[in-house]
Amino acid sequence: MALACLFLSIFITPEILIWLGPMKRSLLSDIETVRKVALFEVKILKIICFIFAILLGFFGIFWRKINNLSIINRINNHQFFYDEIYEEKMGAANHSLFLIVLISLTGLLYMAVAEQLFTVNQLKFINMEDGVIENMTAVFFLGAGILSVLLCVLNSRHLRPVIVFSLFSLLFFIMVGEEINWGQRIFNYATPDFIKPYHLRKEMNIHNAFGYIADHLFVAAVFVYGFILPVLARVTLFWRKVFDYLELPIASMGLAIGFFFISMLQSWTVCRFLDPPPGFRIEELRELLTAIAFCVLMYESLIRFRQKNCIS
């Protein structure tokens, strides 16, 4: 793993990313700010890979000493929640995967046939800013936020899950605000002057500001949290104990596969095979599916809570 990270730190270049597809639009953008931010992100990615390579090598060399630390012993001795019925529900071929795949395929089918089924005005109503897709995204993030608040209440006797689900609820409510531009068009107020120079669309949100850096970080974070961490928990007992010890809600393998599929819904993958209808952006579909996936994650956490309390 350390060698893989070192390899990536050396060989990831803007030219390679343009050739493969990721970040191609940003790296070749006509907007100078977007290009500069994309180049900066590539440099940061190389640095992160190098740091991970050093850390993994360090852990590999000194693991015996590290393994004797009190916190590591506490994690190794931690008895994580296990139940056969729950484990079966959280497997790879579960309802979560079926739901995400079904909705994703529906979205792709819409891309393929929308122009034949809907008028131009109807397409604008569905696809454009503050349209059906964007508003549905806000609704599902709101649903995820409500479920996380409910999980805070249900876990109120334990500090760690309260902190974790409080942070998730805050994140989800921020995402709701971002999706509706913090009510800018609802309450009809102007974008503050101090934001305009840094914002590509002159709107009241963060994810379209500073060359889309917040948007790119969110996409990366969704991939890591939604796919990488569940895989680690699945293949490594230590990491499963770490996540359980921290009370982090980790996606089932089925949902993790769904998160991976969602993360691959990019313009450089989908638009090679499908032409989007007028006004449609694949990013909006990906955000909607991400909101749905987080709703499912909170629902899985609710199932885990109920199953855990039934056993105890």
What does this structure look like?
- There is one protein chain.
- The protein is mostly helical.
- The protein folds into 2 domains: 1-68; 82-311, no CATH class.
- It has 17 helices and no strands.
- It has helices at 2-11, 14-20, 24-27, 32-61, 63-67, 70-76, 84-89, 95-117, 120-127, 132-154, 159-179, 184-187, 213-235, 237-246, 253-263, 267-270, 282-311.
- Helix 8 packs antiparallel against helix 17, helix 13 (213-235) packs across helix 14 and helix 15 (253-263) packs antiparallel against helix 17 (282-311).
- It is globular.
- It starts with a helix and ends with a helix.
- The relative contact order is 0.14.
- The model has no long low-confidence stretch (mean pLDDT 85).
Based on Cα principal axes, name the global outline: globular
In which range does the helix fraction lie? over 70%
How far do the termini sit from each other? 38 Å
Oligomer: single chain
Q: Count the beta strands.
A: 0
Number of domains: 2
Question: What portion of the residues fall into strands of 2 or more residues?
Answer: under 5%
Q: Let me know the average pLDDT.
A: 85
Query: What is the H/E order?
Result: HHHHHHHHHHHHHHHHH
Structural class: mainly alpha
Q: Outline the biggest β-sheet.
A: none
Give start-end ranges of low-pLDDT stretches: none
Which value, in Å, is the CA radius of gyration? 21 Å
Number of helices: 17
